[in-house]
Amino acid sequence: MVRLGLIGLGKMGISHFAIANSHPKARVTAICDSSRYVVEVLKKYTGVRGFTDYRSMIDEASLDAVIIASPSRHHAPMVRHALEKGLHVFVEKPFCLEAQEGHDLAELATKKQLVNQVGFHCRFVASFQRAKQLVERGVIGEVHHISSETYGPVVVRPKGSTWRLKKSEGGGCLYDYASHAINLATFFGGMPDAVSGTVLAKIFSTDVEDEVYTTFHYADGKTGQVSANWSDDSYRRMYNRVTIWGKNGKIVADRQECQLNLRRQVDGFEQLPEGWTIQYTTELTEPVWYYLRGEEYSAQMDHFVSQVEARGADNMSSFASAVETDRLIEMMQRDADAPRTRLVARPDVGAATAVRVRRGWLSRLFSRVRTRLSRRG
User: Fold this and answer.
1) If both were cysteines, with which of 31, 62, 74, 317 could 70 make a disulfide (CB 3.0 to 4.6 Å apart)?
2) In which element (H, E) is residue 24 found?
3) Cα(283)–Cα(277) distance, rounded to whole angstroms?
4) Percent of the chain with pLDDT over 90
5) Terminal CA-to-CA distance of the chain, rounded, Å?
6) Across residues 227-237, what is the average pLDDT?
7) What contacts 24+ positions apart, CB below 8 Å, involve 255-262?
8) Are 188 and 244 in contact, with CB atoms under 8 Å apart?
9) Which secondary-structure segment (H or E) carries 254?
């Protein structure tokens, strides 16, 4: 029986508690939250040991592994303390707010041979797993473009401040929502070597972005696009979709189905006809022992517990894979702050011309000098 400690008793923490504590091979034996009231209520009705300091829980509770569902900025120190005490770690996404910190923690987990997993649950959705299988087996041929989208109704009006609406806490659509789309893009396409055209725009929030758009560029020539908007109330809940174009067709996958369209029939491990083939989640998804929010949430916890039992290193959502997402987030932030190419009036040519506008008095000075020289010429 795997003994689990849980840090953070918010929405995701309570969900993880219910799922993990019902697992046939695991038990939550200790909980921790900064709210003493929440801890005391859960202790009263479950009998688990309660703590308000995560260090005390990790040091005193005789655990095999820990689940961390705290606000994002606390992830790194909590993960480090757990690893240093020899505990396997499941931590909610995003992994870390600084990619280098995440990289160091991934190396530490590997060095100590500890199971490590980040809660990117979309990797455990059966239709996405089926799409990945089709791509890896070359069914749609060489991939040339990937689109990954995430939409939902999180911030649909100006609202009071929570940690998710504070940039310093790791809030915002980029970390909280777009990270799912980014992680799915790397799940299917690997790590791009460049990003461009990043948009981080506010709709209702004041300190963080509400929508995110960017383009990925890969070393092999393929491209990718990520779109995320958590202010879209045309969706009842978070919605993720991936579209993958290859030379022999395309795949469109979301949580409900995996659609495959082929230019030519493919024979091999299975016979797939020309045209459309649609498989629904009901035929792709394995049954789970406990359902809450979606089978993928139970599937990711089962994967973690199974890996802990076997002390395995074959993790579908490891720290290392999450570091790729964190690095891309940092690349997108830098790209969003970079100068833009805009159409401005150029009196020397008498028409609107595309020029790169750079900030600062020195750039403006050089621009004036170039204008005067061109007039003399």
Assistant:
1) 74
2) none
3) 13
4) 82
5) 83
6) 96
7) 255/125, 255/127, 255/281, 255/294, 255/296, 256/127, 256/280, 256/281, 257/127, 257/281, 258/127, 258/128, 258/130, 258/131, 258/134, 258/284, 260/134, 260/139, 260/140, 262/139, 262/140
8) yes
9) strand 249-254
pLDDT tens string 189-198? 999 999 999 9
Q: Which two tokens stand for residue 163?
A: 């940690």
Task: Take residue 261 and report the two structure tokens written for it.
Answer: 């369209």
* Contacts made by residues 75-79, CB under 8 angstroms, sequence distance 24+: 75/170, 76/101, 76/102, 76/105, 78/7, 78/54, 79/105
pLDDT at 340: 84
pLDDT band for position 359 (cuts 50, 70, 90) = very low
The predicted pLDDT at position 164 comes to: 77
According to CATH, what is the number of the domain 2-121+301-317? 3.40.50.720
- Domain map (residue ranges) of the chain: 2-121+301-317, 123-287+326-335, 341-376
pLDDT of residue 349: 57
CATH architecture of 123-287+326-335: 2-Layer Sandwich (3.30)
Q: Which two tokens stand for residue 221?
A: 């020539």
Statement: residue 357 has pLDDT above 50:
no
Give the chain's length.
Answer: 377
DSSP class per residue in 173-229: HIIIIIHHHHHHHHHHH---SEEEEEEEE-SS-SSS-SEEEEEEE-TTS-EEEEEEE
Residue 262 has pLDDT above 60, yes or no: yes
Q: What are the Cα distances from residue 256, in Å, to 207, 232, 302? A: 34, 19, 21
Helices (H), the chain: 11-21, 36-46, 54-60, 75-84, 99-111, 126-136, 173, 179-189, 281-284, 295-310, 319-337, 361-376
Q: Which two tokens stand for residue 61?
A: 């509770």
The torsion angles phi and psi of 361, rounded to 5 degrees, stand at: -70, -30
346 beta partners: 351
Alpha carbon distances (Å) from 299 to 134, 186, 187, 258:
21, 20, 17, 18
Q: How far is CA 352 from CA 129, 152, 174, 343, 372, in A?
A: 49, 39, 34, 6, 18
**Is pLDDT at 372 greater than 70 in this prediction?**
no
